[in-house]
Structures are given as structure tokens and as C-alpha cells.
Amino acid sequence: MKARAAVMYGVGTPLAVEDLDLAPPGKGEVLIRMGAAGVCHSDYHVMSGQAGHDLPVVLGHEGAGTVIGLGDGVTDLALGDRVVLSWIPYCGDCFFCSHDQTHLCQAYKGPLWDGTMMDGTCRFSNDAGPVRHLSMLACWADHVVVPQESCVRIDKAVPFEIAALLGCAVTTGVGAVLNRAKVAPGTAVAVIGAGGVGLSIIMGARLAGADRIIAIDANSAAEAMALNLGATDFILASEDIAARIADLTPHGADHVFEAVGKRALQRAAIDYCRPGGQVTFVGMDANDATIDLPSTGITRSEITVTGSIFGSACTTRDFALYGQHYLDGDLPIDRLIGRRYSIDQINEAVADMLSGKPGRGVIVLNEASHG
């Protein structure tokens, strides 16, 4: 069959939206009709060359759709299932999985980084040869073939565009608050960066019962959405951030989350945290990124500095949990959506993200975002 997809052929060049050949699902694989996909900075990291990847590749790692085809050996999914696609599938049997750290599972690291299926081959192709799948998913396409391990069934009451954002931004942000930092009610939280992940951290902090939620961003246009999603205060990056936080909190923030992935901001996060508090790095910089730590100051103040990948989530538990929180009105994920596009507008969607337009951009696929 044919699939319309956004293909990357070179670093720093616009994506090509074209029809690719899509082979049927192989053993243990599933054919998905995509409903929606999110536009994430991590995809741009590939486009810019910050995250190297073999080319050509169909991008997109945040998406949801409907199961319309099953390969041999698929037993846990059925035709018609609504699924969120996970870019960190887990095996369930390794050391990390057995210690409730499924997000650290290394079992599928090879094909995940190579952009292939589990068997090392691709299902997309064109006249020139195979086309790779980012994170074994390739969500910026109207149909995809993915491993069954990447599919997490979700309530059909959750719209596709909401389910899609569970696949990265929402789970990364909310999970960092609930699973990694374990923010307690009544605490003060500072969030550096009010993009899709930062806004999701704000929603998570509100859900956790934080008393003060301080959003920090370089773009004043981010303020309205940050406050709408639960922030109590907004600080522009051009202000004296440490002084403002000191004015708003008696001892400094109990928790500071860095959601941009910039070394200077990661280093500054430590200065915003109170003694005995915790700094959690959520944004991703280059793989070789390092920062200088005030080791004596950290020791004396007993600040904990940690990281969180993919919200430290167990996707089979947390996708459904956060989806239910949305249905219950506790996670207003719909307010996170700032713009909607067709797949043919993918380059516009990326440009809007880079320009700092507030909220998450969503690619609507197969006219099914509300279905």
C-alpha cells in the first residue's frame, strides 16, 4: 500500500511530503491508521543534525491511531484498537523492567536508534530503496507499521489528538513530576521553559497539588497558556529570576524542572532551588553535553540533581492513567494544543514551533483527530 509521509533526506533541508510504499506488517508487527501526531523539538534535533540519524527517515515519534492490520504472532492487540505509540517500548523481562524501570529498558535500543523494525529492516521504501522509521514509529505519516511492543491500547473516549500528546510531551512532563520528583501537595515548583514539555510539567504540578507553580520562559507570549494550564506566576527570562523566585517563595523552590535542554539553564536551575530541594533535568541537550556543578555548594545544601527520561513512565500504566485524568477533567491536555496542521503543512508546523508559538502543534491525519 501507499502511505503519505514527511521524509527527511538531508540535514537542514525542508522535509519532503510524498507517497511511499508501505509493506505489510511482518511477524509481531501492526499496521496503524494514524489519527494524529505531535510536533516535538526532538524531531527537529534530527532535522538539525544535533541527533544524528541514517537517512532517509520518516520523522515523528509522538502519535496515536487505530490498529487496522495484524502480523503473525500478534496476540495482545485486535483490529479496531485505539493505541498510543511509545518511542521507548520495553521487554518486561530484563533487570530494569523487573525493577519497575521500564523506561530504562535497553532491549530494543539497536533498532530504536537505527530506525528499523526489530529484524533490522524497514517497511517504508521508495524507488531509491528503504526509508527508515524514527524510533521505530515514523508518526509523521498517515499509515505506519510498528512493532506490537510500541503499541499501548487506550480508551476510545480519548480523542486522537489528546492520545498523540500522551506519546511524548504529556507523559514526559507529568511523569517527571509524579514519578521522578514525586512532588508533594503544598510545595513550590519552578519550571524553566514553557514549551510542550514545560507546560505538561505545569499541568503535572497542578495535579500533584503544588501550592505555587512558577513558569519561566524567554517568550512573553507563553505566559497566557502557562497560567491557563496551572502556573501561578510567570517570570520572563530577561528578569532577575533568582530574585523573583526569592520574592515568591520563603526559601527558594522545592522543585526546579529544566524543560528546555540547554546547559546554561540546567546550571542556573541549581541556583533557584532551596536547600534540601530537588532539580530535575527533563529537556535534552546534545548527547555530549556537560555542565560544571558547584559540588561543594550541592553538598552543603543537600540539593538533589537528577534527570527524567520519558517521565520515568511505565507506558502501559501511565498512558491509560493520564488519559483517564484527561477524561476526568484533571489534566486539561486540550488546552495544550496551540495549532493544527495537515501532513502537507509539516514544514510550516516545524517553523511555527521554532518561532516560539505557544502550545503544541498537532498534525491531524486521516481526518480523525476527534474520532
Please summarize what this structure is.
By secondary structure, the protein is of the alpha/beta class. Helices cover 28% and strands 27% of the residues. The protein folds into two domains: 2-153 and 332-364, Medium-chain alcohol dehydrogenases, catalytic domain (Quinone Oxidoreductase, Chain A, domain 1, Alpha-Beta Complex); 174-309, 3-Layer(aba) Sandwich (Rossmann fold).
Architecture overview:
Helix content is 28%, strand content 27%. Helix 5 packs across helix 6 (196-208) and helix 5 (169-181) packs across helix 11 (315-327). The protein has two domains: 2-153 and 332-364, Quinone Oxidoreductase, Chain A, domain 1 (Alpha-Beta Complex), CATH 3.90.180; 174-309, Rossmann fold. Strands 3, 5, 6, 9, 10, 17 and 18 form a seven-stranded mixed β-sheet that branches. By secondary structure, it is of the alpha/beta class. The model has no long low-confidence stretch (mean pLDDT 95). Strand 17 (337-341), helix 12 and strand 18 (360-364) form a beta-alpha-beta unit.
Number of strand elements: 18
Major sheet description: 7 strands, mixed
Order of helices and strands: EEEHEEEHHEEEEHHEHEHEHEHEHEHEHE
Query: In terms of per-residue confidence, which ranges show pLDDT below 50 for 5 or more consecutive residues?
Result: none
Offer a few descriptive terms:
single chain, 371 residues, alpha/beta, Rossmann fold, seven-stranded mixed beta sheet
Describe how the helices and strands are arranged.
Blueprint: E1 2-8, E2 16-22, E3 29-39, H1 41-48, E4 57-58, E5 63-70, E6 82-85, H2 95-98, H3 109-114, E7 124-126, E8 129-133, E9 143-147, E10 151-153, H4 160-166, H5 169-181, E11 188-192, H6 196-208, E12 212-217, H7 223-228, E13 233-236, H8 241-248, E14 253-258, H9 263-272, E15 273-281, H10 295-301, E16 304-307, H11 315-327, E17 337-341, H12 346-354, E18 360-364
Parallel strand pairs: 4-8, 11-12, 11-14, 12-13, 14-15, 15-16, 17-18
Antiparallel strand pairs: 1-2, 1-4, 2-7, 3-5, 3-9, 3-18, 5-6, 6-10, 7-8
